[in-house]
Amino acid sequence: MSTPIGIDALLERERTHLHRLTPQEAAAALVEQNALLVDIRYAALRDRDGLIPGALVVERNELEWRMDPQGSHRSPETTDHDRLVIVVCNEGYASSLAARSLQALGLHRATDLIGGFQAWKAEGLTVSK
């Protein structure tokens, strides 16, 4: 049996496998690399704060099923293991673990947005209600 670690240590360990993006880098990747932004926030946060235009909304509990390029329940946007997928949560914590889960499914370029939706909004990038 392995020694248990806390969430902070787990998060730090998993982030060593990600090339996390700032809001500005993510915005550029959407245009320059045809990246797919995936918003995993729950509905109450989306209703309260708005959406990033063009983001695919997939709540966290459905993420692996909707993002698996080989899965029968996948979203039409997820047919390529090589596409850059940028996961967005509210503040950039859950998205790191979610991106690692997508990497385990073979989406080797999956990563997340540093600071999450709140950082995107704070940078003055486009948000719609």
From TrEMBL:
Record keyword Transferase present: yes
Protein name, entry field: Rhodanese-related sulfurtransferase
Listed SMART domains: RHOD
A GO MF term: transferase activity
Family matches, as PROSITE patterns: RHODANESE_3 (PS50206)
Domain Rhodanese: 31-129
Matches recorded under InterPro entries: GlpE_sulfurtransferase, Rhodanese-like_dom, Rhodanese-like_dom_sf
Alphabetical keyword list: Transferase
Domain of life: Bacteria
